[in-house]
Protein backbone atom coordinates (compact mmCIF):
# COMPACT_ATOMS: atom_id res chain seq x y z
CA UNK A 1 0.00 0.00 0.00
CA UNK A 2 1.29 3.44 -0.86
CA UNK A 3 1.84 5.76 2.04
CA UNK A 4 1.30 8.79 -0.16
CA UNK A 5 -2.23 9.76 -1.08
CA UNK A 6 -2.89 12.31 -3.78
CA UNK A 7 -6.08 14.15 -4.66
CA UNK A 8 -6.61 16.37 -7.67
CA UNK A 9 -9.65 18.61 -7.24
CA UNK A 10 -10.55 22.04 -8.60
CA UNK A 11 -7.09 22.59 -10.12
CA UNK A 12 -5.42 21.81 -6.79
CA UNK A 13 -3.15 18.82 -6.18
CA UNK A 14 -3.08 17.68 -2.54
CA UNK A 15 -0.28 15.35 -1.42
CA UNK A 16 -0.95 13.62 1.90
CA UNK A 17 1.87 11.86 3.74
CA UNK A 18 0.13 8.91 5.32
CA UNK A 19 2.31 6.52 7.27
CA UNK A 20 0.92 7.33 10.64
CA UNK A 21 2.30 4.30 12.54
CA UNK A 22 5.82 5.60 11.80
CA UNK A 23 5.04 9.28 12.33
CA UNK A 24 4.97 9.75 8.55
CA UNK A 25 8.70 8.98 8.25
CA UNK A 26 9.54 9.13 4.55
CA UNK A 27 10.81 6.08 2.68
CA UNK A 28 12.33 6.00 -0.78
CA UNK A 29 9.03 4.82 -2.29
CA UNK A 30 7.21 7.71 -0.64
CA UNK A 31 9.65 10.27 -2.06
CA UNK A 32 9.24 8.70 -5.49
CA UNK A 33 5.44 8.82 -5.24
CA UNK A 34 5.58 12.49 -4.28
CA UNK A 35 8.04 13.22 -7.09
CA UNK A 36 5.75 11.43 -9.57
CA UNK A 37 2.73 13.39 -8.39
CA UNK A 38 4.59 16.66 -8.98
CA UNK A 39 5.95 15.51 -12.36
CA UNK A 40 2.42 14.56 -13.44
CA UNK A 41 1.11 18.10 -12.97
CA UNK A 42 4.28 19.85 -14.10
CA UNK A 43 3.10 20.70 -17.59
CA UNK A 44 -0.56 19.75 -17.47
CA UNK A 45 -1.57 23.38 -17.98
CA UNK A 46 -4.42 22.93 -15.53
CA UNK A 47 -3.20 22.48 -11.95
CA UNK A 48 -2.62 25.84 -10.26
CA UNK A 49 -1.78 24.95 -6.64
CA UNK A 50 -0.15 22.16 -4.65
CA UNK A 51 -0.87 21.39 -0.99
CA UNK A 52 1.40 19.13 1.08
CA UNK A 53 0.24 17.87 4.48
CA UNK A 54 0.53 14.93 6.86
CA UNK A 55 -2.14 12.53 8.09
CA UNK A 56 -2.47 11.58 11.75
CA UNK A 57 -0.72 13.45 14.51
CA UNK A 58 2.21 15.00 12.65
CA UNK A 59 3.52 16.40 9.38
CA UNK A 60 6.52 14.08 9.13
CA UNK A 61 9.31 12.64 11.30
CA UNK A 62 11.65 13.13 8.35
CA UNK A 63 13.66 10.60 6.44
CA UNK A 64 13.16 6.98 7.46
CA UNK A 65 16.27 6.29 9.49
CA UNK A 66 16.35 2.60 8.61
CA UNK A 67 16.64 3.65 4.96
CA UNK A 68 19.64 5.78 5.92
CA UNK A 69 21.17 2.90 7.84
CA UNK A 70 20.47 -0.02 5.51
CA UNK A 71 20.87 1.13 1.94
CA UNK A 72 24.23 1.09 0.23
CA UNK A 73 25.76 4.51 -0.25
CA UNK A 74 24.34 6.50 -3.18
CA UNK A 75 21.19 4.41 -3.20
CA UNK A 76 19.61 6.24 -0.29
CA UNK A 77 18.97 9.58 -1.75
CA UNK A 78 18.11 9.45 -5.44
CA UNK A 79 14.34 9.38 -4.88
CA UNK A 80 14.66 12.08 -2.23
CA UNK A 81 16.63 14.22 -4.65
CA UNK A 82 14.06 13.63 -7.41
CA UNK A 83 11.30 14.85 -5.10
CA UNK A 84 13.18 17.83 -3.72
CA UNK A 85 14.35 18.98 -7.14
CA UNK A 86 10.87 18.83 -8.69
CA UNK A 87 9.50 20.60 -5.60
CA UNK A 88 12.13 23.33 -5.83
CA UNK A 89 11.31 23.78 -9.52
CA UNK A 90 7.53 23.59 -9.15
CA UNK A 91 6.04 26.36 -11.26
CA UNK A 92 2.78 26.72 -9.34
CA UNK A 93 2.51 27.85 -5.71
CA UNK A 94 3.00 25.20 -3.05
CA UNK A 95 1.22 25.41 0.31
CA UNK A 96 2.43 23.37 3.30
CA UNK A 97 -0.02 22.55 6.08
CA UNK A 98 2.04 21.59 9.12
CA UNK A 99 1.11 20.17 12.53
CA UNK A 100 2.70 18.05 15.23
CA UNK A 101 6.32 17.45 14.26
CA UNK A 102 8.22 18.63 11.18
CA UNK A 103 11.56 16.85 11.44
CA UNK A 104 14.57 17.08 9.14
CA UNK A 105 13.41 17.17 5.57
CA UNK A 106 9.96 17.99 6.99
CA UNK A 107 11.38 21.39 7.87
CA UNK A 108 13.83 21.61 4.96
CA UNK A 109 11.09 21.23 2.37
CA UNK A 110 9.19 24.19 3.83
CA UNK A 111 11.97 26.43 2.52
CA UNK A 112 10.85 25.45 -0.99
CA UNK A 113 7.18 26.21 -0.39
CA UNK A 114 5.40 29.52 -0.96
CA UNK A 115 2.86 29.43 1.87
CA UNK A 116 3.44 27.62 5.16
CA UNK A 117 0.69 27.36 7.77
CA UNK A 118 1.36 25.61 11.06
CA UNK A 119 -0.61 24.86 14.20
CA UNK A 120 0.61 26.45 17.45
CA UNK A 121 1.78 23.10 18.88
CA UNK A 122 4.05 22.29 15.92
CA UNK A 123 7.68 21.51 16.74
CA UNK A 124 10.28 21.95 14.01
CA UNK A 125 13.72 20.40 14.17
CA UNK A 126 16.74 20.11 11.89
CA UNK A 127 18.52 17.26 13.71
CA UNK A 128 21.17 16.54 11.07
CA UNK A 129 24.06 17.44 13.36
CA UNK A 130 22.77 14.98 15.97
CA UNK A 131 22.75 12.24 13.35
CA UNK A 132 26.30 12.98 12.16
CA UNK A 133 24.83 14.50 8.98
CA UNK A 134 24.81 17.94 7.34
CA UNK A 135 22.08 20.26 6.03
CA UNK A 136 20.44 19.27 2.75
CA UNK A 137 18.54 20.63 -0.23
CA UNK A 138 19.91 24.15 -0.05
CA UNK A 139 18.85 24.68 3.57
CA UNK A 140 22.40 25.76 4.43
CA UNK A 141 21.86 28.61 1.99
CA UNK A 142 18.13 29.33 2.29
CA UNK A 143 17.81 29.14 6.07
CA UNK A 144 20.45 31.80 6.89
CA UNK A 145 18.89 33.90 4.16
CA UNK A 146 15.41 33.61 5.65
CA UNK A 147 16.18 33.57 9.39
CA UNK A 148 19.65 35.15 9.56
CA UNK A 149 22.96 33.41 10.23
CA UNK A 150 22.68 33.49 14.02
CA UNK A 151 19.28 31.77 14.20
CA UNK A 152 20.17 29.33 11.42
CA UNK A 153 23.36 28.42 13.30
CA UNK A 154 21.34 27.68 16.43
CA UNK A 155 18.87 25.49 14.53
CA UNK A 156 21.47 23.70 12.40
CA UNK A 157 24.40 23.40 14.80
CA UNK A 158 22.50 22.53 17.98
CA UNK A 159 19.73 20.59 16.27
CA UNK A 160 17.22 21.36 19.03
CA UNK A 161 13.45 21.55 18.34
CA UNK A 162 11.94 25.00 17.98
CA UNK A 163 8.39 26.25 18.28
CA UNK A 164 5.88 27.53 15.74
CA UNK A 165 6.23 30.96 17.37
CA UNK A 166 10.00 30.90 16.71
CA UNK A 167 9.46 29.66 13.17
CA UNK A 168 6.97 32.46 12.53
CA UNK A 169 9.17 35.14 14.09
CA UNK A 170 12.10 34.12 11.89
CA UNK A 171 10.23 34.01 8.62
CA UNK A 172 9.53 30.31 8.06
CA UNK A 173 5.75 30.58 8.34
CA UNK A 174 2.99 32.52 6.65
CA UNK A 175 0.79 32.22 9.72
CA UNK A 176 0.13 30.16 12.85
CA UNK A 177 -3.39 28.78 12.70
CA UNK A 178 -5.38 26.83 15.32
CA UNK A 179 -5.66 23.11 14.59
CA UNK A 180 -9.43 23.35 14.15
CA UNK A 181 -9.05 26.05 11.50
CA UNK A 182 -5.96 25.10 9.53
CA UNK A 183 -7.70 22.87 6.98
CA UNK A 184 -10.11 25.66 6.00
CA UNK A 185 -7.36 28.29 6.07
CA UNK A 186 -5.28 26.27 3.60
CA UNK A 187 -8.31 25.50 1.44
CA UNK A 188 -9.19 29.19 1.38
CA UNK A 189 -5.68 30.19 0.27
CA UNK A 190 -5.79 27.48 -2.39
CA UNK A 191 -9.13 28.79 -3.69
CA UNK A 192 -7.76 32.34 -3.82
CA UNK A 193 -4.72 31.18 -5.78
CA UNK A 194 -6.80 29.11 -8.21
CA UNK A 195 -8.86 32.22 -8.94
CA UNK A 196 -5.75 34.12 -10.11
CA UNK A 197 -4.78 34.21 -13.80
CA UNK A 198 -2.37 31.35 -14.60
CA UNK A 199 0.20 33.45 -16.44
CA UNK A 200 0.47 36.02 -13.64
CA UNK A 201 0.60 33.32 -10.98
CA UNK A 202 3.38 31.25 -12.49
CA UNK A 203 5.37 34.25 -13.67
CA UNK A 204 5.15 35.92 -10.26
CA UNK A 205 6.58 32.76 -8.69
CA UNK A 206 9.26 32.49 -11.39
CA UNK A 207 10.32 36.11 -10.84
CA UNK A 208 10.51 35.59 -7.07
CA UNK A 209 12.54 32.39 -7.46
CA UNK A 210 15.12 34.03 -9.66
CA UNK A 211 18.08 32.31 -8.02
CA UNK A 212 17.40 28.77 -9.14
CA UNK A 213 21.00 28.26 -10.23
CA UNK A 214 22.40 29.30 -6.87
CA UNK A 215 19.98 26.94 -5.10
CA UNK A 216 20.89 24.06 -7.42
CA UNK A 217 24.58 24.70 -6.89
CA UNK A 218 24.13 24.61 -3.11
CA UNK A 219 22.04 21.43 -3.35
CA UNK A 220 24.81 19.75 -5.35
CA UNK A 221 27.50 20.79 -2.88
CA UNK A 222 25.45 19.61 0.10
CA UNK A 223 24.57 16.38 -1.69
CA UNK A 224 28.20 15.25 -1.98
CA UNK A 225 28.96 16.09 1.64
CA UNK A 226 25.72 14.45 2.82
CA UNK A 227 26.67 11.21 1.05
CA UNK A 228 30.10 11.33 2.66
CA UNK A 229 28.54 11.98 6.08
CA UNK A 230 26.19 9.00 5.77
CA UNK A 231 29.06 6.56 5.96
CA UNK A 232 30.99 8.20 8.81
CA UNK A 233 31.26 6.32 12.13
CA UNK A 234 29.30 9.10 13.88
CA UNK A 235 26.32 8.74 11.54
CA UNK A 236 26.37 4.96 11.76
CA UNK A 237 26.39 5.19 15.54
CA UNK A 238 23.46 7.66 15.53
CA UNK A 239 21.35 5.49 13.19
CA UNK A 240 22.06 2.34 15.17
CA UNK A 241 21.23 4.08 18.47
CA UNK A 242 17.88 5.32 17.10
CA UNK A 243 16.92 1.96 15.65
CA UNK A 244 17.88 0.07 18.82
CA UNK A 245 16.25 2.75 20.98
CA UNK A 246 19.44 3.27 22.99
CA UNK A 247 21.46 6.39 23.84
CA UNK A 248 24.29 7.39 21.54
CA UNK A 249 27.73 6.27 22.74
CA UNK A 250 29.78 9.53 22.84
CA UNK A 251 32.97 7.52 22.25
CA UNK A 252 31.64 6.57 18.81
CA UNK A 253 30.11 9.97 18.06
CA UNK A 254 33.13 12.17 17.45
N1 LIG B 1 12.58 6.80 10.72
C1 LIG B 1 12.13 5.57 10.99
N2 LIG B 1 11.20 5.32 11.95
C2 LIG B 1 10.71 6.36 12.63
C3 LIG B 1 11.15 7.68 12.39
C4 LIG B 1 12.13 7.88 11.40
N3 LIG B 1 12.58 9.10 11.07
N4 LIG B 1 10.50 8.50 13.24
C5 LIG B 1 9.68 7.74 13.97
N5 LIG B 1 9.81 6.44 13.61
C6 LIG B 1 9.10 5.29 14.15
C7 LIG B 1 9.63 4.91 15.53
O1 LIG B 1 10.77 4.08 15.41
C8 LIG B 1 8.43 4.18 16.08
O2 LIG B 1 8.39 2.88 15.51
P1 LIG B 1 7.92 1.60 16.41
O3 LIG B 1 6.52 1.92 16.81
O4 LIG B 1 8.04 0.47 15.45
O5 LIG B 1 8.86 1.56 17.57
C9 LIG B 1 7.24 4.95 15.51
O6 LIG B 1 7.74 5.64 14.37
C10 LIG B 1 6.69 5.98 16.47
O7 LIG B 1 7.76 6.85 16.86
P2 LIG B 1 8.08 7.23 18.38
O8 LIG B 1 9.52 7.61 18.47
O9 LIG B 1 7.60 6.13 19.28
O10 LIG B 1 7.13 8.50 18.57
P3 LIG B 1 7.33 9.72 19.56
O11 LIG B 1 6.06 10.49 19.49
O12 LIG B 1 7.83 9.26 20.89
O13 LIG B 1 8.51 10.60 18.89
C11 LIG B 1 9.66 11.70 17.11
C12 LIG B 1 8.32 11.20 17.62
C13 LIG B 1 9.43 12.21 15.69
C14 LIG B 1 10.13 12.83 18.00
C15 LIG B 1 10.70 10.56 17.15
O14 LIG B 1 10.13 9.42 16.55
C16 LIG B 1 11.97 10.87 16.44
O15 LIG B 1 12.83 11.59 16.94
N6 LIG B 1 12.14 10.31 15.21
C17 LIG B 1 13.35 10.45 14.45
C18 LIG B 1 13.37 11.78 13.76
C19 LIG B 1 14.63 11.94 12.91
O16 LIG B 1 15.72 12.03 13.41
N7 LIG B 1 14.42 11.95 11.59
C20 LIG B 1 15.48 12.00 10.63
C21 LIG B 1 15.70 13.37 10.19
S1 LIG B 1 17.05 13.51 9.07
Q: Would you write up a description of this structure?
A:
The chain has 254 residues and is α/β, with parallel strands linked by helices. The chain has a domain of 176 residues: 2-enoyl-CoA Hydratase, Chain A, domain 1. It is built from 11 helices and 9 strands. Strands 1-2-3-4-6-9 form a 6-stranded mixed sheet, with helices on both faces. It has a 3-stranded mixed sheet with strand order 5-7-8. The protein is globular, with a radius of gyration of 18 Å. Coenzyme A (COA) binds next to α2 and β5.
Average pLDDT metric:
96
Q: From the 3D structure, determine the CATH topology of one domain.
A: 2-enoyl-CoA Hydratase, Chain A, domain 1
Q: What gyration radius follows from the Cα positions, in whole Å?
A: 18 Å
Q: Can you identify the CATH superfamily of one domain? A: 2-enoyl-CoA Hydratase, Chain A, domain 1
By DSSP, the count of extended strands is 9
- The CATH architecture classification of one domain is Alpha-Beta Complex
SS content category: alpha/beta
Entry keywords:
about 250 residues; alpha/beta; 2-enoyl-CoA Hydratase, Chain A, domain 1; six-stranded mixed sheet; three-stranded mixed sheet; 9 strands; about 45% helix; about 15% strand; binds coenzyme A
Amino acid sequence: MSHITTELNNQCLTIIINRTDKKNALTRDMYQDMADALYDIKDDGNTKVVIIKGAGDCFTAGNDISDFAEQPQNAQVSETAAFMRVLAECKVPVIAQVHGMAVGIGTTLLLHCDFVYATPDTRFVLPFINLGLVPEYASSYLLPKVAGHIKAAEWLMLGEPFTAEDAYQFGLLTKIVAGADIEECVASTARQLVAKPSFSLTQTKALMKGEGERVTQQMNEEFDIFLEALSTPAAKEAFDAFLKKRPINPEKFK
